[in-house]
Amino acid sequence: MSGDLDEFIKLFEAELDLIEGGGYGLPAGEPRHENPMFRQSLVCINHWIVRGREPRCDDDCMLMRWVPPERKNEVNPCHFIPLNDAGETVHSLEGDQARLEDAVKTWLRTTIQRLKEEQDAPPTRP
After folding, report:
1. pTM to 2 decimals?
2. Residue 93 backbone phi and psi in degrees, to 5
3. What is the DSSP track for 12-47?
């Protein structure tokens, strides 16, 4: 499991760096359009496997760990991951790119911290 945690942490840190560096935004003067959060990101394994086609989510997606069970059959289940205590999701924040990016950045920071704590926790005995 430690290897999985390392992978999650590295990818989430890279995703956070990308968003903080303006990766989902456009250069000044370019027409603004919304980018599909997670679907065109480093953490979307499905995006990288099926390049040029609409990603299709399945149980191999690393984000499924955080998707509520009742949302796992959605077209984009990662868009229903609760990002904060208010239960906001990528789906509920679509249309407000600034709030969406802020919520995702906060979720990534919090999740990275939890994964690091999980990684550092002593193993439990059966």
Report:
1. 0.76
2. -100, 0
3. HHHHHHHHHTTTTS--TTSPP----TTTTSTT-HHH
